[in-house]
Amino acid sequence: MKVFNPMYCKVVFTSLLVLVVLSLPYPAQAQQNWTATVGGQSTDMSGQAAAFLPNEIWIHAGDSITWTFNSGDIHSVTFLTVGQVYPFDFTQGCPPITPSGSPFDGSSCVSSAPLVLGQTYQVIFPKAGNYEIVCLVHGQMFGVIHVLDPTLALPYDQASYDEQAKEQLKALLEDAALHQHHAEHQHSIADMLSAKVSSHTKSVTAGVGEIAATAGGQQSFSLVRFINGTVTVHAGDTVEWTNLDAEIGHTITFGTIPQDLIDPSCSPNCVVSTDPDGAPHATITSTQQNVHSGLIAALLEDEPGFPQGPVFPPTRFRTTFTAPGAYRYVCAFHDNLGMNGQVIVLP
Ligand SMILES: [Cu+2]
């Protein structure tokens, strides 16, 4: 019988060494700066991911995170205080806009401006706690930062987060591409969801999107395009645009982009009326007219604990064309991403 086992001895010695090391006073942690990304897009910018990538991060108190913005669509990095109302005007920050490198400990809000591709924003987290990160531009884009006491172990390293970010973005953009394929090859999506107000109506899908969730929050992908957006009709016909994106609003804008992007408008010498189902409806009589749908978006959800709101915003927009011509239109929000189309009106 073997009494002395060198292997056993080695294990005991190693275990003792580990215990000694663990019981030493914990060395002061170097304050780490973590990196993450905000948003992402396909090469042609049609696919947009409204997402914090990744949207759940564990760090130590004293650490910071630098977010790099990665899309032509704007986003913000914002930390509101508990109880603070999510503001309507994203251009003002939380408000205010706070400089990059601001500390957030839950006592007062911190927010970047709306930023795009290549810009960065850093936040320092001096105090342990679980903090929600939100985007003021996209209501269904949020995540959580877990700030732990420096003595506690962290579940992931930077390389893991880089990998998660890559995988999450890939999944979102693949979904967007799949929708583009379906939408272009089965125009019935738009037809199916179009309100058939008359037989002389053609429908265009003004954006498609879906919201996904991780344990840490929500992300969404959007196809920022008018799908089959070039349509040919005859004078007297109506074109109807329908937004199938739960996250991103769009506009249908002919001519000059107006100051007020939210409300419909038409000039000169024309008005936008409202159809019985709530959709704004313009009659355009010349290629010289400026017609703006206002914000068209999938109906906003009601939130638990808040009073029932009105049916808002309109989900559809209709335009009746009375004169032959080529009518180019854009989305006033996403013209920069290539979201445009054309209505060709034949006699
Ligand atoms: Cu748009």
Describe the structure.
- This protein has 347 residues and is α/β, with parallel strands linked by helices.
- The chain is built from three helices and 22 strands.
- The strands form four sheets. Strands 6-8-4-1-2-12-11-14-20-18-17 form an eleven-stranded mixed sheet. A six-stranded mixed sheet has the order 13-22-21-15-19-16, with no helix packed on it.
- The longest helix has 28 residues.
Can you summarize this structure?
This protein is of the alpha/beta class and 347 residues long. Helix content is 15%, strand content 35%. Copper (II) ion is lined by residues 224, 250, 331, 333-334, 339.
List the helices and strands and how they pair.
Elements (H helix, E strand, L loop, with lengths): L5 H18 L9 E9 L5 E7 L2 E5 L3 E6 L8 E2 L22 E2 L6 E2 L8 E5 L4 E6 L7 E7 L9 H28 L2 H6 L7 E14 L2 E11 L2 E5 L3 E7 L8 E2 L10 E3 L4 E3 L5 E5 L5 E3 L23 E6 L3 E6 L9 E7 L1
Parallel strand pairs: 1-4, 3-10, 6-8, 11-14, 13-22, 18-20
Antiparallel strand pairs: 1-2, 2-12, 4-8, 5-7, 9-10, 11-12, 14-20, 15-19, 15-21, 16-19, 17-18, 21-22
